[in-house]
Amino acid sequence: MAAIFTCCLGCCGDGGPGHAPLKEMPTVQLDTHHMGTDVVIVKSGRRICGTGGCLANAPLHQNKSYFEFKIQSTGVWGIGVATQKVNLNQVPLGRDSHSLVLRHDGSIYHNNEEKNRLPANSLPQEGDIVGMTYDHVELNLYLNGKNMHCPASGIRGTVFPIVYVDDSAIIDCQFSDFYHTPPEGFEKILFEQQIF
Q1: Beta strands per DSSP E along the chain
Q2: What is the DSSP letter of 3?
Q3: pLDDT (tens digit per residue) in 99-131
Q4: CA distance 146 to 130
Q5: Tens of pLDDT along 55-106?
Q6: In this structure, are residues 68 and 124 in contact, taking their beta carbons and an 8 Å threshold?
Q7: Half-sphere exposure of 76 (CA within 13 A, CB side)
Q8: Which of 52, 57, 117, 128 is 20 to 30 A from 20 (CA-CA)?
């Protein structure tokens, strides 16, 4: 028995030669290397203010992703998905093929075309939580946990969550520890190494 205990301490307990420490997984947050020139990112990469857009630091590789945005202060804003080719200094987004976004007025734009629209009585207000699911085909929206039944599609390639602000808007991003339970089959964004 003592030999087993000694072996465990010798192999695992002292962190000596042959010990490989576990690498901490990165946190999904807004990426300060992929943001507009007049954007300010605070709250550990979770809050955006200023003018322009910012991508998250993790692409949506998995089949079914879920993430949320909280409207802290209204103004001009947009949230959705985009490729790294998107112009992060251009507001509003959704004008080209590189972004698919819900705008503050309830319209969902991609390639300068309105793809869908939230019901008139369901426009996000200050304090509201907008959840998004993405399955590599459709982007679906949830307002305070309720499915808005207004899917949008059309974007191609590797996409990232995106948020843009202007006119005093402040948006918080929630990539884990959600306010609302993700729809069945959807989960938080995983870094590629977490998937395999």
Answers
A1: 30-35, 38-42, 47-56, 65-73, 76-82, 99-103, 107-110, 113-117, 129-134, 138-143, 146-147, 152-153, 160-166, 170-174
A2: H
A3: 999 999 999 999 999 999 999 899 999 999 999
A4: 9
A5: 999 999 999 999 999 999 999 999 999 999 999 999 999 999 999 999 999 9
A6: no
A7: 10
A8: 57
Token pair belonging to 31: 């990426």
The residue-averaged pLDDT of 31-58 equals 98
The predicted model scores a pTM of: 0.87
Is 69 exposed, middle or buried, given 0-12, 13-18 or 19+ CB atoms closer than 10 A?
Answer: buried
Three-state secondary structure call for residue 88 = coil
> Would you report the helix, strand and coil content of the chain in percent, each value rounded to 5?
10, 40, 50
- In whole angstroms, give the CA distance from residue 42 to residue 115: 31
Residues in the chain: 196
Look-up of token digits 């991003």: 173
Reported as half-sphere exposure (CB side, CA atoms, 13 A), residue 98 has a value of 12
Helix (H, G, I), strand (E, B) or coil at 144: coil
Q: Per residue in 153-172, pLDDT tens? A: 999 999 999 999 999 999 99
Q: Are strands 113-117 and 107-110 parallel, antiparallel or unpaired?
A: antiparallel
Block residue for tokens 């305070």: 144
Contact 55, 98 (CB under 8 A): no
Q: Cα-atom radius of gyration of the chain, to the nearest Å?
A: 20
> What was the pLDDT predicted at 22?
55
